[in-house]
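Re: folding output
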Amino acid sequence: MDDHPVVRAGVKNTLEHGGFAVCGELDSPDGVLNAIKELTPDLVLLDISLGQVHGVELIKQLCDLFPDLPILVLSMHDEATYAPRAIRAGAHGYVSKQEKPDKLLAAIHLVLGGGVYISDSVAKRMLQTLTVTQGEPLSLPSEILSDRELEIFELLGRGFGSREIANALKVSFKTVNSHREHIKAKLHIKSGQELVRQAIQWTQLENEGTKKVDAQ
């Protein structure tokens, strides 16, 4: 599942040349539940960024409904930020789109065999996070905020207002504002204006990191 047709075509070609059969493809989460029920795939391959729906939340939903279905994430987003979140949400692996095709194929074989695929650098980072002493502050929003809070923080950084975020996430305006207050408390931000400013800066840094990866 990916919202870019060229990417889907390339991934499909890689999988078929690697000996796998692609039973279906989607450009958005719409209809994914019915597609899984109808096609009964052995594995779901999806991106973290799926329009207005966040892949981490979709992973949680799929794990609740299809607990035995392996999920592998293939994304251009910073794996140091999103791989741990995807794994915690229930994904069985995370592959960066900058990796070579054989890495993707190896990850699929590992996941189908019951394993979990993450890069060595992410595994090391996750281990370091587990060994942080209790009460020691973590420096990055991606390490402090919950999945939903980070999702809202990113949308704020992309210029969404609270009502727009509520509509996009299909939650109440009150719920969004409650999350905003939690974000401000966790990041030690005093005002809504400062919250938006930091969200924009964070989003710009994330985008710059993605562009550097794509340029390699």
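--- second protein (sequence, then structure) ---
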Amino acid sequence: MYWKLIIIALCVLLLIFLVWKEIKRENKSWMPARLIASALEVISLIFLALPFTINQKQKTSNFNTAILLTEGFNSDSAQKILTAERDAKIFTTDRDIKAFNAAYITDVTAFTEGSYNPKAIHIFGYGLNENELNLLNKTPVIFHPAIVENSIINIDWTQKLKPGEPLLVQGRFNNATSLPAKIILTGFNTNLDSVIVAAKYTSCFQLTATPKHLDRAVYSVTVISGNDTLESEPVPVEVKITQPLSILLIAAYPDFENKFLKNWLTKNEYKFAVRTSISKNKYDRQFVNIVPAPIDRITASLLEKFDIIIADASALTALPASDISIIRNYIETKGAGLIVKTDTSGNSSAFYLKSFPLIEVRDSVQH
């Protein structure tokens, strides 16, 4: 603070000196103009030497009414509020809503922490959840709910399945009638599954069935209340046989984990070959769902037959450098997969650790 006063004092002394020089000047013509110019020079010097800031409160967009459109809103109801409230501004948190040129906002905090400050908010449609309403703090909210009808509000299912994989249909249904509604999953003229939604109630539902066919088929979800069919929605499904992966399993020694893995792969009809070390340069070989081939040495032509290599870390460590080079090149150039079963004999210089470092986590519980 003192240095500012010193600068101002020096500038005042400079101004006094310049005025005294002008008064002493023999040529008195244009003296007033020269005195004004000297004063402006000193003032400019002060502004250059001292930082000046202006504090100005940012103005927020204050308006009486905000209209927030959510999914299921009624256009006519929103239009009535627009007609009655001339200064109302329309917003939405749904990018798909384009009606009334609604301004998109990421969340409702724009009304409390952003540049908008409405005195009241009209919310149309299905509305906000409890957390979103809490973000509005004490801003008055007028809710205009969606028109209640008998309808499946949303429905979803996996359209592409594997043989034996269950078809799971999930959704939400609003029953506005005075009778219970029955939701039925139908396929090939057969009722496969059903659920009941109570009268005057909105509920989530889940229907399931296991397709017995291959290729494409169309199931249907039908809603029945009494003798009336309220709604029917098609459920297209494709059941497609996928080509099983070919796996090369390299084990340093027989163990329970490898036995369990082989049984699981066999049960799920994978194609795989297993090479298990018995002693130095002696291996036990097994081939399941695949044509037998020499697997004692790792070659590029051998790896072309497989999609994934599963190996013990110790088995990889024991491989010759030439075999490791072939595996690494095949993974990097062909995009094949490598799954390494780690153990205490890990090689810190292994090529697969360069991109995927391993960190040991020890159990801190003492027994």
